[in-house]
Amino acid sequence: MAGLSINKIDCILTDQLLQLGSHVRAYNHLLVESGFTFFATEALLKTSNKEFPQYLSGFPWLMLGKKSAVRMRLSSWLDKHNISPNIVAEFDDSALMKSFWQAGFCVFSSPTLIEKDFVDKYDFKIIGRAEEVKEQYYIIAIIEIVTGINKQ
What we know:
alpha+beta
């Protein structure tokens, strides 16, 4: 935000809204919104005979950290479906999380808009989707962007 306030940077791409009470007069612009996709390897899927989403309770999970913007929404969705994930690790660093899920021993989730990359590059299987769990990406800028982004 300091970089925005002194015009060192033009905008910030983030998954969180600008905090209320900020001393920088900036604007949130919703860029894109996506549901969530759940992934696992074929070998892990063979260990369950339940249907999605109930079998999510039986698998080990890699989960986003509690400070993640989407974590609360994902946790609410899991609670709604009476799913108690067996969380084996939590990550605030997506690069570190990536090295763990590449081993293929856990279920993980990601925004649906990038699911093709996981399937194509890493041979993970899509085990289900939750469109009601939304990941949102914003551009935060000092001036109102007039290029038509999310203009209604």
